[in-house]
Amino acid sequence: MSENLNLTSVDEKIKGISDYLKASVLEPAEKQKSDLIKSAEEEKNRIIQAAQAEADRIISAAKEQAKHELETLESSMRIASKKAVDTLKLSIEKNILTAAVNETVKSALSGEEMVKEFIKLAVDNLISGQSSAEVLLPENLSAKLESFIKTEVASKAKAGIKLSSETVPSGFAVSVKDSSLMFDFTEDAVIELISGFLRPQIRKYLFEK
After folding, report:
1. If you count DSSP H runs as helices and E runs as strands, how many of each does the chain have, helices first?
2. Which tens digit of pLDDT belongs to each residue from 53-70?
3. How many CB atoms lie within 10 A of CB 14?
């Protein structure tokens, strides 16, 4: 009987120690384990969300950069295309003007009779009676038209007109004495003058239909 009581007492003590250990060690450890798992899960989710947000930001920035680069490229292509078209237009315009004007002017200003008419018109319309002027001619026409200048131009003009000892490469020029004024009717000047009148019409005809 005494032995049974002793065994019961020992069992109770062991159970008491076990219950104490469970309550004071295992249960807190289990709770701490749950808290750690929960905290780790929350941290994992936070890291995943942050990584996803950063990935979205990088992708968005890359898309924006690509869009900007595409717009820049398109803008550059538009500018380059416009420049190419403008250059082509100028080339076409120049070729047409050259074909239409250059040979005609050169032919006209190389003929004595046409140059005579031009000189008369220039003197009558550009030189006032109070001025005196000199007519400059190309070397190949100077001797041929010297008599014409004296008899047909100087004698009939209101102003004092004479043939200059200086020459021009083509066409003619009228230099007003005692001033820096010169009326230039050389080939290049007449070509530029006529081209200036024709250029807007050619542009309208070719490029504004």
Report:
1. 6, 4
2. 777 788 888 788 878 777
3. 10
